Amino acid sequence: MPQQNPLRLKSIHHVEFYVGNAKQAAFFYRQAFGFSQFAYAGLETGRRQSVSYAMQQGKARLLLTTAFAPDDPVAQHVQRHGDGVRDIAFHVEDADAAFAAAIERGATAVAEPHDLADGHGTVRRAAIATYGDTIHSLLSYRGYDGPFLPGYVERHVPTSRDAGLLRIDHMVGNVELGRMNTWADWYSRVLGFERYISFDDKDISTDYSALMSIVMSDNSYAIKFPINEPAAGKRKSQIDEYLDYYRGPGVQHIALLTTDIAHTVTVLRDNGIEFLNVPDSYYDMLPTRVGEIDEALETIRRLGILVDRDEEGYLLQLFTRPVVDRPTVFYEIIQRKGSRGFGKGNFRALFEAIEREQALRGNL
Ligand code: FE2
Predict the structure, then answer these.
(1) What is the tens place of the pLDDT at every residue in 12-28?
(2) What residues have their beta carbon closer than 5 A to ion ligand 1?
């Protein structure tokens, strides 16, 4: 029996972005990524400082928040980091117990346990700090039966472009040189996560830049958080570019799971989502590298999907370009066919693609 995790984390409840214009971000996630809006809080619902749109596709929930006043912490976060992830919120059994356990295990408090309440009931919330200005909210339900969280009203704006995305597969954080192990240890000590896989600069280096990565996971492998740091290369690492533009550590990418990547990528490309392109030669070598796969090579090539195989099976994946103007946060679309890995065999092709774009930005 795997050990019960010390904070009794159930799942990622939602991911909150602080953004400059939540209304337009909600439109983007609906029309381009195929999320539906399901809940809302703002001036019309009695919230005076900020506005939030709750978006969902499958079980993946994003919350998009913008503040009205320039000195609001939400606005200051956006001023410093651009649009980015503020909160990876966990659903926990008991927010008070989770918070107490986290603090005892060395976490820094961001918010003491408190009630969020409305006519639908109560949710207990606390929050702890992780890398950079990123936090983990801890949320537990006390008879709440509303649409999202207390203070939100149901406001459904469906999408006509659902891309078949099911849930968050993993979320990656970029931290400074020399800090990867610190944060891996933090996830182990505070959240009881285990070191799932690590990659060193021999796995992930090109002629120019390199990075190192450790994947931390809860004991059910439902919540996976790779942590990257830059490694010394001839030129500037893609992680350094992120750290420069995000002005510190933060979430680099969110990987969303699908069970039909060809369908998902077709929809997303039709919707105008831009993906990183690998050279055509990648596909010439693919059959030799990964062997027999269920998907037609022609489809994979046409859609620019990457494939990797390990002992347990294979996976298909694809990465978007940054979805904001700063070269910071992007998305990964992933389908797993037995593999629990992260596409190590694609790192070289992928990072060369990233570096071509870095060079175009004058940052290599
Ligand atoms: Fe990833």
Answers:
(1) 999 999 999 999 999 99
(2) 255, 332
